[in-house]
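I am still getting used to backbone structure tokens and would like to learn alongside you. To get us started, please write out a protein record for me. Once you have written the record down, we can walk along the chain together.
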Amino acid sequence: MTASAAKDSRQALGRNPDRLTLEERTALAGKIVALEVYSPATLPLRRIEAIGDSIDACIGMLQERGLDPRRFEYSPLGPAY
């Protein structure tokens, strides 16, 4: 996904944000990601379920996939450290 991450950020779906490579993280820095909210009942995996330039874009992507946007937290993906 290295060179194409900036062109098609959907390639990051299903991946743990901490497992993105340096090149991927740089290409996706500033994007908003949706991660399932933690609850003891579900113990969700830490995976990117939606990614976009805004929260609205993430909500739309989640709805397209049949997921409830209220079950997710939205945060900007920062640069690699």
Q: What stands out?
A: The beta strands are 32-36, 50-52, 72-76. The chain is about 20% helix and 15% strand.
